[in-house]
């Protein structure tokens, strides 16, 4: 089998007819199925990565291979090659850069604006350093887009879909703007967390400094002070500002999950993104369970569920398949 096909299968890029042949190959032997599930877990629970280098790929490959060898299982040469591709996929998904062009139709000259887009897949996070030194931590299933000549023409502007924590380099001459479909945050130099997933409320939490909240059209909506959080409700189109403990909203970038009196139903969407799983809460009792605690963000999901079971008395079932993401039923 062509190694490129295996990589594209893991990456979800194969057409259906080719995907079927790779799937048949995996299903031919139980050990292939077992190792495939191991790889899927490694993709989802590998934590965060700052930069992709040959050395980091080699280290990730050695880690995956070492785990399999430690189990005492034998692997064939083809699967060894698959592990190499898996190491590349697991790392490149964390900080995948895509350069593309946008033509300006309003001008006779077809001027092009080069953009850089950084994406993270579900279950992954990544740290990005922008040209001005600003550090951005991207959470699961998020993307950040900015001009290739970022900061060179008096503006520092990025577009966010998903969740990110920003530690902005101060520059009084070049304001920093984060745009979403519903809100624009304008800062000079500050630290804040912003959530802007499709179909969800937009939430900005200020840790340090000062930010100005604007509408997409440029109308000023509010200012934020450290320790304040502003939420734009998509259902009511209203703004709410309140004081919060910022640790609960910024801890994910440091590899922790901190929960404080959060209903399981309310935190479930975030856990789904963290672990790249589908959670089904079967009844009102489990939906209303209030969760408190702190854990490692890269804790395997089966370990997390065991802790929740022992602490809150819930039960669960984990179902994995080759075709779909892992399903966790809680009851």
TrEMBL record:
GO MF annotation list: sigma factor antagonist activity
Protein origin, superkingdom: Bacteria
Keywords annotated in UniProt: Membrane, Transmembrane, Transmembrane helix
Domain FecR protein residue range list: 117-212
InterPro entries, alphabetized: FecR (IPR006860), FecR_C (IPR032508), Ferrdict_sens_TM (IPR012373)
Pfam family, one: FecR
Record carries keyword Transmembrane: yes
Record-annotated membrane-spanning stretches: 82-100
Residue ranges annotated for the Protein FecR C-terminal domain, each copy included: 256-320
Name of this chain's protein: FecR family protein
Provenance organism: Saccharicrinis carchari
Source lineage: Bacteria, Pseudomonadati, Bacteroidota, Bacteroidia, Marinilabiliales
